[in-house]
Amino acid sequence: MLKMEETDFNDILDDWFIESLKTYKDLHVYQLEHPTQVLEWTSGKTVCVAGFSPSTNEILELHLPLKLFADDNKGLCAERDFKVVHGGLTDGPVRVLRHVPGTRCVVTNDGLTSDLQVWSVGGDNSDVIRLTGRVEGRKRRSVSEGGSFRIAARLSSRVLHGAQSSDVQLTQLISGQILYALETDSDDPLSSLQFVDDVVFLAGCSSGNVYIADTRTSAAPQRHPPPASSGESVLWWTDVSSCSVVRLSSAGQAVISDLRNPAAAVSRAQLDVQSGRCNPDVRASWAPALDGCIAVSGFSGAVQIYNTSVWQTESREVQPLFEHRGHAVSSQPGDDVFVTAHVWHPERPRTLLSAASDGSVHVWDWVDQSAASC
Asked: What is the C-alpha separation between 357 and 328, in angstroms, rounded?
């Protein structure tokens, strides 16, 4: 029986590999010693990862394979592997990690407290990622009281952070000064925290509520309730682009709203996901260089790409434009592998990076078969 299962597994892997020759422009894999929940670009060619085990973890900056960036004569480029360029050790888990734009610093949170850890990535011509400081959160409490910690970073070393709608604050990292504190009358656990521009940010809550706040004023933030659902108890995740908001529920419902009026639905869809087994790290993210497309992960071992521009006002079941199944297909039989993180490349339209619970990291550039067949 074991021999037959191994044969079937190899057949599935072979079939997927042959299929991938047509469906991917590029596909490169890397194996971490321990899985990561964070993938954060530090440049267009480097990314930070870190483990989340209870004790000591590696925090690494990886350089993507040079072959990925060889537009011509890829076959002549010998560099096909990820390379570790900087590294360090943490004394606890890393649940959230954000690069501070314009610097060689990253900010992390361990998921245990509301404090931030500040790291220098290869400063002073060193190959070490070194802890350089800490920032206290707004509330001295354990994050286990509710909410997943979220961080957003902007130029001038300004960082938004918090776990609930009532404890979000904007901190200047260099001085430690609190520049703004979100004042709300609820303790909604956060599912996202993002800058819309230099002064406005969006806080998405797992209840579906969205707060939009202007850090230049002390006026109360605008609160936008979730769109009407089918009545079941669901959790919501949020992402924002320059003009649109997407909310994704644990039941696989996706709702698009105009940023100027997030309470109203512009279009809806029921995604083709395994809604019964989503994990806390479900993610929906807008493509920065591909209009109308979102990537979805956290429901299984796959990352799905959807084209929201064809969705309608009434919710209908939709199929993904593309599905990256590499993590699940290449895992061992019986392993319940799920995607722990994904991120779009900031400039390359169809390039994404994804990580899974087995420690695998993939960078892939997918082919739009619908466009290729036209």
From this structure: 10
312-324 b/e with 16+ CB inside 10 Å = b? eeebeebebbbbb
Instruction: Enumerate the β-bridge partners of residue 84.
Output: 62
Quickly tell me which residue has 């991917």 as its tokens.
24
Residue 7 confidence (pLDDT) above 50: yes
- Phi/psi at 115 (5° precision): -85, 155
Look at residue 137 in the predicted model and tell me its pLDDT. Answer: 85
Q: Is the pLDDT of residue 333 over 70?
A: no
CB-based contact 82:355 (threshold 8 Å): no
Task: Give the neighbor-by-neighbor strand order of the sheet with 210-214.
Answer: 190-195, 200-205, 210-214, 222-224
Which residue's entry shows tokens 């734009």? 101
In the predicted model, what is the mean pLDDT of residues 104-120?
A: 95
Q: Specify the amino acid at residue 102.
A: G
- Dihedral sign computed on CA atoms, order 163, 166, 171, 175: negative
Q: Cβ distance 342 to 361 under 8 Å?
A: no
Nearest to 304 by CA among 271, 330, 281, 275: 271
* pLDDT tens digits, 34-53: 999 999 999 999 999 999 99
- What percent of the chain has a predicted confidence (pLDDT) above 90? 70
- Segment (H or E) for 307: strand 303-307
DSSP character for 219? S
Residue 189 scores a pLDDT above 90: yes
pTM: 0.91
Structure tokens at 154: 């902007």
Cα 367 from Cα 148, distance rounded (Å): 34
Q: Could you tell me if 265 and 227 are in contact, meaning their C-beta atoms sit under 8 angstroms apart?
A: yes
Q: How many residues are listed for the chain in this entry?
A: 374
Percent of the chain exceeding pLDDT 70 equals 87
Q: What is the pLDDT of residue 195?
A: 96
Closest CA to 303 of 329, 339, 278, 279: 339
Measure CA 12 to chain center.
28
Q: How far apart are CA 351 and CA 365, in angstroms?
A: 4
Residues 138, 169: contact at Cβ < 8 Å?
A: yes
Q: Which residues contact 279 (CB under 8 A, 6 or more apart)?
A: 298, 299, 338, 340
